[in-house]
Amino acid sequence: GYYKEAHIHDYDTTSNDVAFVLFNPGLGHPHLKSGWRDAMDSIVQTRLPLFLTAHSELDQDRDWNMLRESFERVGRPMPLHVVHVHGDDGYRLCPFASRMSTPDPLDGGRAVRANAYYLYVPPA
């Protein structure tokens, strides 16, 4: 996938119209994690807002850990707003989640729902 190349273009970081939105990216999934590492580090370094969704609690936990690792690698603290408002796992139930469950082929067929949870990381 394109994300493996970590092609993050220059953005106007002073604009209120720029954010990263990642729907069910699988950042921390064992089969996808290595492909996301450089891209996530680049995204975190931009200090732009980030909106993520996750398929399941397992998916959100893995993605949350990957996001924390990215903040650590680039030498930035996780924004306190994210930790204090959302709690340790950072995610909330998503109001626009799919109502249909599907088997996750990369996770032994476990039932998941697209966009079941969301996380918003504000600009820093």
Task: Describe the fold and architecture.
Helices cover 31% and strands 19% of the residues. Mean pLDDT is 81; it is low at 1-6. It is globular and about 40 Å long. The strands form 2 sheets. Strands 1-2-6-3 form a 4-stranded mixed β-sheet. It has helices spanning 33-46, 57-73, 80-86, and strands spanning 20-22, 50-54, 92-93, 101-104, 110-113, 117-121. Helix 1 (33-46) links the parallel strand 1 (20-22) and strand 2 (50-54). It has one domain (2-121). With 124 residues, the protein is an alpha+beta fold.
List the main descriptive attributes of the protein structure presented here.
single chain, alpha+beta, 4-stranded mixed beta sheet, 124 residues, 3 helices, Mss51-like_C, Mitochondrial splicing suppressor 51-like C-terminal domain-containing protein, disordered N terminus
Rg over CA atoms: 14 Å
- Please estimate the helix content: 25-40%
What fraction of the residues are assigned to beta strands by DSSP? 15-25%
Question: What is the string of SSEs from the N terminus onward?
Answer: EHEHHEEEE
Number of strands: 6
Give the SSE map.
Layout: E1 20-22, H1 33-46, E2 50-54, H2 57-73, H3 80-86, E3 92-93, E4 101-104, E5 110-113, E6 117-121
Parallel strand pairs: 1-2
Antiparallel strand pairs: 2-6, 3-6, 4-5
In short:
The protein is α+β, with helices and mostly antiparallel strands and 124 residues long. The chain has helices spanning 33-46, 57-73, 80-86, and strands spanning 20-22, 50-54, 92-93, 101-104, 110-113, 117-121.
